[in-house]
Known about the structure:
This protein has 7 helices and 2 strands; from the N terminus they run ααααααββα.
Amino acid sequence: MVLTVILVLSALAINNSEPKETNPNTPAKVSARIAPAGAVYAGDTGRAAMAAAADAAAKAAASQVAYGGTTDGKEIYDHLCTSCHTAGIAGAPKLGDKAMWGPRIKEGLDTLVKHAIDGYHGPDGNFMPPKGGNPALTTEQVTNAVHWIVDQAK
């Protein structure tokens, strides 16, 4: 019995002398858990902080816009639209093909822009994905690309 007590006490001493395993992510998890949910801005300091936050958000949003934010219709066409509108993939009217573009142009530019932004499934099986398949495009970029493409068919 004495031997058992000695072995148990020895095991406890060894266990207590060993360093405990620590998770290196624990401090980050604790910081995230106790971080404030919001902030209060008051006076001139608050206005400056809010302006800085708005600028940072605008810069972050601008970095997410396709093709560096260019609004040049030809450049957008060259980056994205050319893949389908050169070969006529999925029934896409080819660039400069007046016979294919004529009926579409008669529907009006607003309709063409709407189809380019929202996507379109035509009655003859043709298909236009929303924003040409690039959701990072802005409405202005899509509009300018459509206008440039239509100008090539006139």
